[in-house]
Amino acid sequence: MTVIGLALVIAGAIIFSAGWVSKPRDGKIIGAGAAVIAGGTLIGIGGNPSKGMPHGSTAMVILGFILAGAGIALFAVLAGKGIKNAREKKRQNIEEQKVAFIKEYEQNGILECRTEKEIQKATLLAQKYRLEFTDISALFYEAKNSRARDTENRQAAAIQSKKDEERRQFETLNRYSSFSGRDKRIAILTDERKEALNEAEMMRITAKTVHDATQQKEQDWATQGGIASGIAGPAAGIATALNVQAKNAEIRAQNQENLKTFAPAIQAAYRKAFEYDSRADALQKQIDEAKIKLVSKDDALTCLSRITFSDTTVDVSETGACTVTTTAKAKQPLLIFDDVKATIDGTVIAKIYDGKSLVGAASLVLPKYGISSEAELKGMCLSCGTPGKHYTVQFAAVNLWAMER
């Protein structure tokens, strides 16, 4: 068991070292190596009689084999992935070299690889890009295919990036679409208040950072003097203390000068923080007021009938996302409970049609305080349209209400 344990410890040390020297360091490989080392150690100890264990320890040996086996298995998996990744990286590098080769080849005004001139130029460029080949014409057409795949991949990546961007915009536009009644206004105001408080804190941090960066720390003359006195005697201690005090005086003077220079920036940051704090206080007041605003029992269709829509457009992106914009306007001033000034709030549904066929729907969330006069609305429907096609819109609602201003 001693030989097996020692062999495992050595193997574990090699695995550990491989993970340690890799760039960046690979914690999983290091962990696998440590497990093998621990397993080998347990096998070595448990497999040999000792004063405390005259017959060794079978449990320790079993645990050692489990640990070592787990570590070796983990290393084997990681090594396999590493080899696979290395092969894929090499393949990608070759593909990139082929693309560079064909681009430079065509930049020389050559589009085929048939004549002696074309073959010679292709051969020279292949050597330049260190591409292996047995048939230069075959390499030429492989490179053209590589360039086509590269173009397709770039286009696909651009489309996916656009889709991701539209998904984020969609989520932002629909963030408050599920709220009803007072909750919508309270949710918007609460988020604005959080943002104001965060900005205020950032301004205070900025001011403190600038202040601290301009101020050097003074040294403790008593401590420095005491150390010098203990080493070289009282005279050296006094001299050191005086020297430190002189340096501290210079530091204080420089700190004052720095503070004068950066005071405007520090004061500006604190003023901005005060403005954001004041805004947060004002928003909290609005939140408290919103909690006791009256909401009528008018249904969504009645509320929708009190709004007119104009200048409605449907823009379709290259990904098929439809963006609906429209101008919503209250037909007339609204009162609820006979004498309470009110606004229409909630979410309007824009149904998108291709002729008579419904292709999708976009949620148009009304502004923070709803519509009491006029507002521009915007909503999105992802992957429901075709670029270049004309679409029409019909408006509907299931989540609209009339609420006190």
Task: Tell the overall outline.
Answer: extended
- The number of domains is 3
Total DSSP helices: 9
Distance between the termini: 84 Å
> What share of the residues lie within helices?
55-70%
Number-wise, the strands total: 7
What's the average pLDDT? 86
Parts with pLDDT < 50 across at least 5 consecutive residues? none
Beta-strand share of residues: 15-25%
The largest pleated sheet is described as:
4 strands, antiparallel
Would you mind describing this structure in some detail?
- This protein is an alpha+beta fold.
- It has three domains: 173 residues, no CATH class; 109 residues; 105 residues, Immunoglobulin-like, CATH 2.60.40.
- Helices cover 61% and strands 17% of the residues.
- Strands 3, 4, 5 and 7 form a four-stranded antiparallel β-sheet that branches. A three-stranded antiparallel β-sheet has the order 1-2-6.
- The longest helix has 57 residues.
- It is extended.
Provide tags for this entry.
single chain; 405 residues; alpha+beta; Immunoglobulin-like; 3 domains; four-stranded antiparallel beta sheet; three-stranded antiparallel beta sheet; 9 helices; 7 strands; 61% helix
